[in-house]
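Journal club prep — side note

Before the paper discussion, L.F. wants everyone to see what a predicted structure for a comparable chain looks like in token form. Sequence:
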Amino acid sequence: MPALEEEFRQFFERFDTSGADVFHEQFLSLDPARAAVVTRDQLRAVLPRRAQMFGSVGATGTRLRDLDARPLDELHALVETHWDVDFADENAEPLTLHATYLLRRTDDGWSVVVYLNHQDIGGVIANRGQTAST
């Protein structure tokens, strides 16, 4: 299991450089407000806006803090993650994001087939922006 956890850690650490490429051609995206089937191309189109949204509150990136992986069968694994958001201001209030992924092993490696954000990211960012401006 430690080898598999290390494999998943490396997979998630590539998120910043690989972008949408780590997602299956079509995947299910869930959060507290909605559930939608999304294509990789649709994800590519929204990534710049997502980066802009995070940048609007001074975020400079995210770092994988921890993960809990559970193989489901030969092809699938459930991976729960926590991500720390990095801010330009070192004194900024910490922010941790929580997401769970259902991964499928393909000939090219792992790909995300279900992406569950446990928080409404837009709401979290909007609330943070309001807090920062007060």
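L.F.'s comment for the group: The longest strand covers residues 59-71. Keep this in mind when we get to the figures.
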